[in-house]
Amino acid sequence: MLTPVPQDLRIALARYADARIEDARRSTDATARAVEDATYTLCVMTGTREIAQALRVADTLLGVHPEDVPAGRAHPGPQQDDSLQTA
């Protein structure tokens, strides 16, 4: 896997967050596609197959440590992948 440029990774994380927020606000076919596209992009960039894993890898690549994540913003587990991570 090639290591993504931090700025590109931050942009991909922001697009994922924006897509998730918009889909949660008003879910449509277009917003669902945007979430799928953003998820796919993050998975490809991080060499993973699941969004929870992609978010953890992105955090690691950006130097975010679990103790730096505010309370209530835990990393999603395999059963829960709806937390938004910030870069």
List keywords for this structure.
87 residues; mainly alpha; 3 helices; 56% helix; DUF5133; DUF5133 domain-containing protein
Topology:
Elements: H1 6-25, H2 29-46, H3 51-61
Helix pairs in contact: 1-2, 2-3
Describe it.
The radius of gyration is 12 Å and the shape is elongated. The two termini are 20 Å apart. It has one domain (6-66). Helix 1 packs antiparallel against helix 2. The chain has helices spanning 6-25, 29-46, 51-61. The longest helix is centred in the N-terminal third of the chain and has 20 residues, at 6-25. It has 87 residues and is mainly α.
Question: Summarize this, please?
Answer:
With 87 residues, this protein is mainly α.
Overall geometry comes to elongated
Measured on Cα atoms, how large is the radius of gyration? 12 Å
Number of domains: 1
Pattern of helices and strands: HHH
Helical residue percent band:
55-70%
Give the termini separation.
Answer: 20 Å
Number of strands: 0
β-strand amount:
under 5%
The computed structural class is mainly alpha
Work out the helix count.
3
Main sheet makeup: none
Unreliable stretches, pLDDT < 50, 5 or more residues? Answer: 72-82
Q: Kindly state the mean pLDDT as a whole number?
A: 83
Region (Disordered): 66-87
Protein name: DUF5133 domain-containing protein
Pfam family, one: DUF5133
Organism: Streptomyces argenteolus
